[in-house]
Amino acid sequence: MTAGEHEAETGPMQVRGTVLTVRQVDAYHAITIVAPGIAARFKPGQFVAVAVGGPDTSMLLRRAFSIHDVRPDHGGTVEFVFSAGGRGTRWLAERRARDTLDLTGPLGRPFPVPRDPVSCLLVGGGYGSAALFALADRLRERRCSVDFLLGAASGDKVFGALTARRTSRSATITTVDGSLGVRGIVTDMLGQVIHEARTDVIYACGPMPMLRQVTALARRYDIPVQVAVEEAMACGVGVCMTCVLPVVGSDGITRMVRSCVDGPVFRGEQVRWDEVGTIPFDAFGAPGWEPKVRRGADQGARPPGSPRQPAAASAADRSDRPARPGGSRDSAKRPGHGT
Ligand SMILES: Cc1cc2nc3c(=O)[nH]c(=O)nc-3n(C[C@H](O)[C@H](O)[C@H](O)COP(=O)(O)OP(=O)(O)OC[C@H]3O[C@@H](n4cnc5c(N)ncnc54)[C@H](O)[C@@H]3O)c2cc1C
Ligand code: FES
């Protein structure tokens, strides 16, 4: 097989998929589409970009959705969960069985999985939780233990609480209004869960403020964290630069990287959270840019966007460490997610 043929087997594709079901799941909708090629190529953390509005529409841009699940039925199906808050997602919620949808995927870099059986904490906010369940399955295949920490504004916006409780070692739920689980936000409980679960690696998906706080807390415990960011996207395939955010490479240099192809999964500590939405003056290529190594940059990782996935190598590498909370390490919004 040539390199080009291999890429064709593994890279994203555009399909017209038949809608199997659209169902309401509490505050969200879950849509299942027959898309065998995308299902076969999917790895947890990847997303699809869906054309909305039908053939004659002013909604020109595809909408991005994290893939929640793939199944072998009908040759291969893809399911994603969405909040019907805007024009495009409301249109999607009105689709019915046997309608067809134009979607591209799977897009983006997936979550890296550890080589060894370690203790993994999956932190989800609102519909962001949906992206974590396929990852949980994958981690269990690797004999990792899985704990969930899920939160949202109210109980109906916590996605997957029952499944998390049924399938994982522990599931902690937080809601801002106290209608389900502990009253508060996920980061209120993060330290306690890390202690109890003796967490080695954190994976997080949810609103950007949540990801930022999870990263800050994970740093305090010296635990590697992989975040799936949600930056507004247009093309979804690396062409338009709409989705860029500042990320520090292992060389200490900040680059504006495309979250659709270089992400959406990044190592949390590599994202310059304070400067998301801006081009920092010291970012590579910014006006007046001069090479300057940022202090504290992880020397073990590769620059984001470089051929081999930096996150994959580093999460696995760091997961190998014996230290756990309770041991030496211990002593130490974007609206719409439903959070
Ligand atoms: C990688 C990724 C994964 C996502 N996964 C999910 C998911 O699993 N479930 C879910 O409900 N939503 C998800 N989103 C957000 C989803 O793409 C937006 O909610 C959706 O585009 C809104 O479309 P709309 O027409 O209903 O809203 P409108 O506000 O009418 O959208 C107008 C435009 O703004 C852009 N836009 C609006 N809000 C967002 C946003 N939060 N993020 C990115 N672009 C936005 C849209 O692309 C569109 O072009 C994800 C976004 C990204 C980037
Ligand atoms: S959305 Fe176009 S480059 Fe990422």
Task: Describe the protein's architecture and organization.
The chain has 339 residues and is α/β, with parallel strands linked by helices. The chain folds into 3 domains: 105 residues, Beta Barrel (Elongation Factor Tu (Ef-tu), domain 3); 112 residues, Nucleotide-binding domain of ferredoxin-NADP reductase (FNR) module (Rossmann fold, 3-Layer(aba) Sandwich); 52 residues, no CATH class. 22% of the residues lie in helices and 27% in strands. The chain has 8 helices and 15 strands. It has a 7-stranded mixed beta sheet with strand order 10-9-8-7-11-12-15, with helices on both faces. It has a 6-stranded antiparallel barrel with strand order 1-2-5-4-3-6. It has a two-stranded antiparallel sheet with strand order 13-14. Helix 6 packs parallel to helix 7. The protein is globular. The protein starts with a helix and ends in a 20-residue tail after the last helix. About 12% of the residues have low confidence. Bound molecules: flavin-adenine dinucleotide and FE2/S2 (inorganic) cluster. The site of flavin-adenine dinucleotide has 24 residues, from strand 4, strand 5 and helix 3.
